Sequence to fold (181 residues):
Amino acid sequence: MGDPPPERGPEPEPERGPVPDPASAPVPDPVRDPWRAAMRLALDQAERAVRSGDVPVGAIVLAPDGSTVLASGYNEREAAHDPTAHAELLALRRAAAALGQWRLADCTLVVTLEPCTMCAGAIQQSRVDRLVYGARDEKAGAAGSLWDVVRDRRLNHRPEVVEGVLAEECARLLTAFFRDR
Ligand SMILES: [Zn+2]
Fold:
């Protein structure tokens, strides 16, 4: 009682590790890295769209285990003469058919491009737990760019959103498609 507080020495210098070389190994990204393999499958789907002159967007739906592919789809607007034949919509429909139920709780939709308003609505309706996408669509995206329909707080179901997975590869595919047209 009444003892003066022990004197503190000067604060130790914070330890600084070596400065990482940006040209060396990529920095681990614990949020996005787990979805890279699934995004590669979605990219494979996207490449199929080009055959019919469709914009290369691909999607897959993963089962609740996070790795089993329930369904896949790619943009078929031109091929099917269907304005609603977006990759996400087709993949969601096929996943529901595969499960035998419309509700895709605990499932994950992985798509190469940020969903449009139509697909964001479908994502919301499907009750998927998680949306993972690659490139942003600054002109029409409805999951963070122009709108954020999927995370609108007025809706009672809001999936987790992981964006920017293999974003450069996803965008490169689109850029090449429009350049070659
Ligand atoms: Zn769409």
The first strand starts at residue 58 and ends at 62. The mean pLDDT is 92. Residues 36-49 form the longest helix (14 residues).
